[in-house]
Amino acid sequence: MSGGVLHGDIKKYFRDRLSAGNMVVYRLASPVEDEIALKTSPGQMPDDREGMVRLPDSEKVVSGPEVTTENPPASGISSMDMAGLRTAVAGCERCSLSSTRTNTVFGDGNPRARIVFVGEAPGRDEDLQGVPFVGRSGKLLDKILAAIGFTREDVFIANILKCRPPNNRDPQDVEVVACEEYLARQLQLIDPVVICALGRVAGQTLLKTKESLRVLREGIHHYNGIRLIVTYHPAALLRNPNFKRPTWEDMKLLKKICDEGAGD
Ligand code: URA
């Protein structure tokens, strides 16, 4: 096997595969050692070495995709269930935010919710508690939910990023790309009637557009076949109470879509 092997990512790759419940038989290559094979099963491989065995030649895997930087391995995320996904997120090291976070913030609420709210990224309180929207914005979101007859237990709340960006800066593209597969799988598993993107960053990221929030608030969009609306982020409402009335209009639309789609 030639150069470019993903030594740094290989543990994460197997962890993803294992938490997806896969039996992994794969070969690793080292530029200095003989080829080695890894054969393990779900629940194993707590660290780099455990679960690794040097297989007899007869058992060596001689075919299969070569894992290189140009050809990264499939993550397995798209076949994970919610529990596997939670485990994968908890151990995620896909971007540098893993080194500054206190906790990952997986998402919270009803895994069979009809409405999923998607914010931007955890803030300080969320990072400390591992739960989305628990700070001032979260308290306001709870009130908004109550105004349309819901509690947090009725809906699901997630973010574009699972980890807090330092000093609450905007998510960077590389972080969004690293994280988006997790949210995509969560949304696929929950399969809600409607997604409500909270703020410009969530709206732009989910819809893969650079349109302004003003434009995004107009109309009903779709994300992988799921209806999606965009409204103001609760933090924006805290800064500017004038946004409360248009947000209320958005929430009435959200409730209407949810009620109409309840039988879908
Ligand atoms: N802001 C967000 O976008 N998400 C949170 O979880 C908290 C604040």
Give a written overview of the molecule.
There is one protein chain. This protein has nine helices and eight strands. The chain is an alpha/beta fold and 264 residues long. It folds into two domains: 7-59, no CATH class; 80-260, 3-Layer(aba) Sandwich (Uracil-DNA Glycosylase, subunit E), CATH 3.40.470.10. It has a six-stranded mixed sheet with strand order 3-5-4-6-8-7, sandwiched between helices. Strands 1-2 form a two-stranded antiparallel sheet. It is globular, with a radius of gyration of 21 Å. 36% of the residues are buried. Bound molecules: uracil. Residues 119-123, 126, 132-133, 135, 137, 159 line the site of uracil (URA).
Explain briefly what this protein structure is.
This protein is α/β, with parallel strands linked by helices. It has helices at residues 7-19, 82-90, 124-129, 136-147, 173-190, 200-207, 213-216, 234-239, 244-260, and strands spanning 24-28, 36-40, 108-109, 115-119, 156-159, 194-198, 221-223, 226-231.
